[in-house]
Amino acid sequence: MEVQWAGVEVPRMGPQHTAVGLIFSLLLGAWYVQGLEMSVGKIPFLQAVNGSTVLLPCTYLSCIGIKDLYFSWSFNENGTMQKVCDSYIVSEESKPEVSIYRERVEFIGKNIDRNVSILLWNITFEDAGEWTCFGRNPKEKGRNHSTIFTLIVVDELRVVDNTLTIIIASAVGGGIAGLMAFMLLKNFTLFVLAKLEEKNKECLVTSSGIDNTENGLSGSKADSKPTPKRK
Ligand SMILES: *[C@@H]1O[C@H](CO)[C@@H](O)[C@H](O)[C@H]1NC(C)=O
Ligand SMILES: *[C@@H]1O[C@H](CO)[C@@H](O)[C@H](O)[C@H]1NC(C)=O
Ligand SMILES: *[C@@H]1O[C@H](CO)[C@@H](O)[C@H](O)[C@H]1NC(C)=O
Ligand SMILES: *[C@@H]1O[C@H](CO)[C@@H](O)[C@H](O)[C@H]1NC(C)=O
Ligand SMILES: *[C@@H]1O[C@H](CO)[C@@H](O)[C@H](O)[C@H]1NC(C)=O
User: Fold this and answer.
1) What pTM was estimated for this model as a whole?
2) How buried is 158 (Cβ within 10 angstroms: 0-12 exposed, 13-18 middle, 19+ buried)?
3) How far is CA 60 from CA 34, 68, 171, in A?
4) Is 149 helix (H, G, I), strand (E, B) or coil?
């Protein structure tokens, strides 16, 4: 079957291409899943007010299991990686002894559910930047994996958030007002239409009534017509 589109012959992708693509992506997917993975979750950044305490999340995932997994957190300070903490995790069940090299840092993941998250107490503006969670599993030929979590530190007096809130609030308020206006308008329109219809009916009835009075003959008509008028 030939593919025609607007009179131009479109080159087709044969079924063999699709199959190759499918196999390729399956292999890629399988390879990708097999390696060690460090994850900071779906949202890899956090905006927090100075002085607050924040959780820097990180979990590891390994399909073949771990043995003496090395993990570390480091902070990118002026372009150089400063080690924040590190440890070896013997197995998925063990609770590691973590060495901490930076102040106000606490290891709270405790390797529960492959959790290697840390807590950063009383953050300052110097804590803002890229935090890297790194892992290496000897069981997987020392394959390295790392992921970055970005911390944004803001002054609580910042107006940007408030402005945004106001914008959102007014947008929502505006939306509601618009909706109400629309509904009022709709109701008003319906009301006017109903009134017009009523008037039309009245007009019709009146004219027919006039008709009746003028004619003064068709008594049966005169009796039946006023009935809808009183409705
Ligand atoms: C945050 O920083 C601002 C500006 O430097 C300062 O005035 C404020 O006290 C700080 N807040 C906390 C909780 O440290
Ligand atoms: C990074 O830069 C800031 C200001 O530029 C400085 O105060 C700080 O000491 C620097 N840190 C390192 C590790 O060089
Ligand atoms: C954080 O700040 C509070 C209040 O200023 C203080 O009591 C606490 O010891 C600080 N924690 C750390 C880990 O520095
Ligand atoms: C990791 O552990 C901390 C502290 O128990 C918890 O708050 C956090 O939700 C955990 N993260 C995940 C992904 O389980
Ligand atoms: C993993 O990283 C370390 C340095 O941190 C390096 O020596 C090693 O060769 C890397 N391994 C792989 C498999 O890339």
Assistant:
1) 0.62
2) exposed
3) 12, 13, 41
4) strand
Q: What would the pLDDT profile of 122-156 be if each residue is shown by its tens digit?
A: 999 999 999 999 999 998 888 889 999 999 999 97
Domain boundaries, the chain: 36-157, 160-230
Among 21-25, 163-167, 210-214, whose mean pLDDT is lowest? 210-214
Q: Architecture of domain 36-157 in CATH?
A: Sandwich (2.60)
Q: What are phi and psi of 111, to 5 degrees?
A: 60, 20
Ligand 2 close to Cβ of residue 77 (< 6 A):
yes
CB 150 within 8 A of CB 44: yes
Region of 58 please: left (phi>0), alpha (psi -120 to 50) or beta: beta
Distance 165 CA to ligand 4 centre (A): 29
**If you count them, how many residues does the chain have?**
231
Residue pLDDT, tens place only, 149-189: 999 999 976 555 555 666 666 776 666 666 666 677 777 66
> What is d(CA 181, CA 193) in angstroms, rounded to the nearest whole number?
18
Q: Residue whose CA is closest, atom 1 of ligand 2?
A: 78
